[in-house]
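Q: Could you fold this chain for me?
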Amino acid sequence: MDYQAVLEEVAAFARPYVGHGQVADYIPALEKVPMGRFGMAVADINGEVHGVGDWEVPFSVQSISKAFSLALVMANDNDDIWKRVGREPSGTPFNSLVQLEWENGVPRNPFINAGALVVTDRLQTLTGDASTTMLHFLREESGNPDLAFDQAVADSEADHGDRNAALAHFMASFGNLENPVPSVIEHYFWQCSIEMSCRDLAAAGGFLARHGLRADGSRLLEAREAKRINAVMLTCGTYDAAGEFAYRVGLPAKSGVGGGIVAVVPGRCTLCVWSPGLDSRGNSVAGAAALDHFTTLTGWSVF
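A: Sure. Below is the predicted structure, expressed as structure tokens.
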């Protein structure tokens, strides 16, 4: 596979979509990101990375971090997390409070905000420092020791984080948090604030394409656990548009409102695309178009 040629053709196809949608202006620090950015990278299972456009420009990972926190919890805790969070699509916005009341404080899946807070809470219990544990893991898997939190983004999220605090307090009232709410949401905001490039994220997500093997060849997850994370990414990873995304792209993916999307071709490669303009569901307009065209060109999907 000539990845570079494919990426260049995909970038040309996606270019008309760049600038469409809107940035996540409800997080003021993200409102300043230029709409004209576009980058894409692919990392094969041997760790070789190719890219195009703004593929080495760091951006805020936001909800993409949820896939990595889930992997770290499953690596340390087997399947116990599924006693506290479900695996079904939500059918409601990612920050909705409605289902929590219907379902007694148990979030529908780990990729909506409520579910991610439960996963962060468990990672905090397991490690004593959820956000730093994730940062160190991402540095190792990406091969980039300079990855860091973005203080401005973390502060911005904390200043506008009332809905996430409400979700956490509501779950705590049902006994579904182990740590104090302020600690859980602080680590959650720090995780979301990590800055990474498409190159970094494609490389860091490689264990999902390698059936659980880390970049150094050691095993993070059993193959069945990696399969399960990919399955939940396919059905729940792109907010309330997972069905449409599966229909168009046909790959497990996790998006973030920073404009990034990480997608996995099991056994072949991991992709990351970034363009800040979001659709009404919170997914990158140009990013989804690019991944759609990538799977059309290559014929690679899970279907």
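A (continued): The chain has a mean pLDDT of 95.
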